[in-house]
């Protein structure tokens, strides 16, 4: 019992002292990892990735990635400044690279290090489609989703240690059974919904950023419709996925577009 109380106490203290309000979402976020800890590692990993993969440069597509990326970065700066967060991006070191890969993907590491795979360009089709992708990925970094997932993983590990302590007097078979129950329950009931909520947050922030940058947020719906068609319905069930289903995501985007346009209008950007 005492061991259980210790683990509960540690988790509670972690929740109390590691929650901060993110200015972009207005929500309390669980975060044990500071940018000063996370960014140097992120920058190093990014440099290693670029050395180990073929970076495309000097082409029209590479220029497009850089141009759209700069516009999204500028939109983020303007948006954060309007929220009174002028210094929020002071430690970011922005880079925008196009990498030769058939993978339909893109990502932004903590600190503003962006990669777009060439395999996604046939689906983005135009600048607005690319802005949808880059705005979404940048939003993950701005909302500190990487650090939050690391923090949640630490709590999940702490919970597993609590289960081990609570079942220590049981047989090895029962201990393994309870660990399996905990693993499934903490993933399906905790980690996966947590990840899906991050995707929805990144969609919302990304719509706002692309709109401020001058790209019609309605184009995001067209892009994700193309993405859905490209997947051929092969995605796992939403309950067991880190991402919302395509249908859920598209429905959410349709509901988010008016707000994105309203925010952009405050910056003098109006769409017909």
From TrEMBL:
Pfam families: Peptidase_M48. The keyword Zinc applies. CDD domains: M48C_Oma1_like (cd07331). Keywords: Hydrolase, Metal-binding, Metalloprotease, Protease, Zinc. Binds 1 zinc ion per subunit. Residues 88-256 form the Peptidase M48 domain. InterPro entries: Mito/Outer_Membr_Metalloprot, Peptidase_M48. Its cofactor is Zn(2+). Belongs to the peptidase M48 family. This is Peptidase M48. The lineage of its organism: Bacteria, Pseudomonadati, Bacteroidota, Flavobacteriia, Flavobacteriales.
């Amino acid at each position: 019992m005492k061991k259980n109380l210790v683990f509960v106490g540690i988790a509670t203290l972690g929740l109390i002292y590691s929650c901060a309000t993110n200015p972009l979402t207005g929500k309390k976020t669980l975060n044990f990892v500071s940018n000063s800890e996370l960014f140097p590692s992120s920058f190093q990993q990014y440099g290693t990735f670029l050395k180990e993969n073929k970076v495309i440069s000097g082409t029209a597509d590479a220029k497009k990635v850089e141009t759209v990326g700069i516009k999204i970065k500028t939109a983020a700066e303007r948006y954060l400044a309007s929220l009174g967060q002028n210094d929020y991006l002071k430690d970011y070191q922005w880079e925008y690279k196009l990498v030769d890969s058939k993978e339909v993907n893109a990502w932004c590491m903590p600190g503003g290090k962006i990669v777009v795979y060439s395999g996604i360009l046939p689906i983005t089709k135009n600048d607005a489609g690319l802005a949808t992708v880059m705005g979404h990925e940048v939003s993950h970094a701005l909302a500190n989703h990487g650090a939050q997932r690391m923090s949640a993983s630490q709590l999940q590990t702490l919970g597993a240690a609590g289960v081990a302590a609570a079942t220590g007097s049981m047989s090895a078979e029962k201990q393994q059974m309870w660990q399996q129950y905990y693993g499934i329950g903490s993933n399906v009931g905790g980690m996966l919904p947590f990840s899906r909520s991050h995707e929805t947050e990144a969609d919302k922030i990304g719509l706002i950023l692309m709109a401020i940058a001058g790209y019609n947020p309605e184009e995001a719906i067209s892009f994700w419709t193309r993405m859905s068609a490209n997947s051929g319905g092969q995605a796992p069930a939403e309950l067991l996925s880190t991402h919302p289903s395509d249908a859920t995501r598209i429905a959410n985007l349709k509901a988010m577009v008016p707000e994105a346009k309203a925010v952009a209008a405050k910056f003098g950007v109006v769409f017909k």
